[in-house]
Amino acid sequence: TRGESGGQTGHTYDISNKHRLGYSEVQLVQTMIDGVNKLYEEDLELQKKMFAFPVIQSTHSLVAKHVTKEVWDKLCKHTTKTAGFTLAKAIACAVEFDNQHCGIYAGDWDSYKDFAEVFDPIIQEYHGISADAKHTSDMDFSKITGNVNPAAPVHSTRIRVGRSIDGFGLSPGITKDQRLGVEKLFASASKKFEGELSGDYYPLTGMEESVRKQLVDDHFLFMSGDRNLTVAGMERDWPEGRGIFHNKDKTFLVWVNEEDQLRIISMEKGGDVLGVFKRLAAGIQAVGDSVMAESGKGFMLDEKYGYVHSCPTNLGTGMRASVHIDLPGWTKEGVDKLKARCEELALQPRGTRGESGGQTGHTYDISNKHRLGYSEVQLVQTMIDGVNKLYEEDLELQAAQKAE
């Protein structure tokens, strides 16, 4: 409706006769009337299909449990204001794949409110919180007691959080203009970072090969091709509007417009979890202050669900605090026993290749299990105490295994 070259917005179209010469005016008007009626008839059929209750392939997912036909019929025609997101887009992964546990993403902050009938019970069940729970954030590192035992064989420490800037869509629903707006805002704001946080922003679009290779070698670069992210709508217009910031020492990073608008990361070799958390706290403050100074916009912060993320499993702190540690005693004992022990300690073990990358040798990625319902300080403290406990038990297991 913006004319021949003005592009298309929404679902309104200008439909006209194609021919001018060789047909009479009556013929052209008749063709237009008949054609418009036919398009309308077909559109109603397409809408019926579009709004038909979908087959949810992930039959054991939280989506399958909470998106009933009754709820679907009530919400399926609604589109959100910020990003024009729909329930169909939100549950695309649970419909497409058969391996989802949660199976839902939000396309903007509105999604959590407009589709609350679906999101609320899923969030409450996943995070184990009550319907009237409130989330409290606390980044005061001075409240942390102790640190990971310096003798523990920890290779590296990494703590990350997600943050979303108010007024823009979240990755699954964000429009192209909004995505570019987030990038422009962050690229400008990052120039204000000082001291050990100062560094450079590298946009993925037009990235020099030498820079790309270095970022790959450092394991910093996020790639396209993740099927989940693609189906959820997060890889649209790739790689436009995306990039990576890192400081000189490569201990403070920000991913722009990956699964979240901003993923803020503090990391270093060794097991100084407290030091990494301190840097993260300073980094989050610097990003928030710079973005606010630049645009007057703050982070999306919900009093019930904490910091807003595209994936409801990350709501609350959005924080994952992890160490890569050698646990040969536990490895010999068996991965299932380690998983059960980590569950008791409110930790999560993974292979060092990430969530689905499997396990090699006896090095594990150990992180906090919870995101929502606990403050950042509580989660880091749980991780420190739990890792120290696992290390202590690992030494005992090794001694017992040698004695056998």
Topology (SSEs and partners):
Elements: H1 25-50, H2 62-66, H3 69-75, H4 87-90, H5 92-96, H6 109-114, H7 116-127, E1 154-163, H8 176-189, E2 199-203, H9 209-217, H10 227-231, E3 243-247, E4 252-256, E5 262-269, H11 273-295, E6 301-302, E7 306-307, E8 320-326, H12 328-333, H13 335-344, E9 347-350, E10 363-368, H14 376-403
Helix pairs in contact: 8-11
Describe this structure in words.
By secondary structure, the protein is an alpha+beta fold. Helices cover 40% and strands 13% of the residues. It has 14 helices and ten strands. The protein has helices at residues 25-50, 62-66, 69-75, 87-90, 92-96, 109-114, 116-127, 176-189, 209-217, 227-231, 273-295, 328-333, 335-344, 376-403, and strands at residues 154-163, 199-203, 243-247, 252-256, 262-269, 301-302, 306-307, 320-326, 347-350, 363-368. An eight-stranded antiparallel β-sheet has the order 2-3-4-5-1-8-10-9. Strands 6-7 form a two-stranded antiparallel ribbon. Strand 6 and strand 7 form a beta hairpin. Helix 8 crosses helix 11. The longest helix is centred in the last third of the chain and has 28 residues, at 376-403. It is globular, with a radius of gyration of 25 Å. The N and C termini lie far apart (79 Å).
Task: For the structure shown, list the relevant keywords.
40% helix, 404 residues, alpha+beta, eight-stranded antiparallel beta sheet, two-stranded antiparallel sheet
Helix content: 25-40%
Largest sheet, order of strands side by side? Answer: 2-3-4-5-1-8-10-9
Largest sheet entry? 8 strands, antiparallel
The 3D shape can be described as globular
C-alpha end-to-end distance: 79 Å
Please mark out the parts with pLDDT under 50 across 5 or more consecutive residues, or reply none: none
The overall pLDDT average reads: 93
Radius of gyration: 25 Å
By DSSP, the count of extended strands is: 10
Helical element count? 14
Strand content: 5-15%
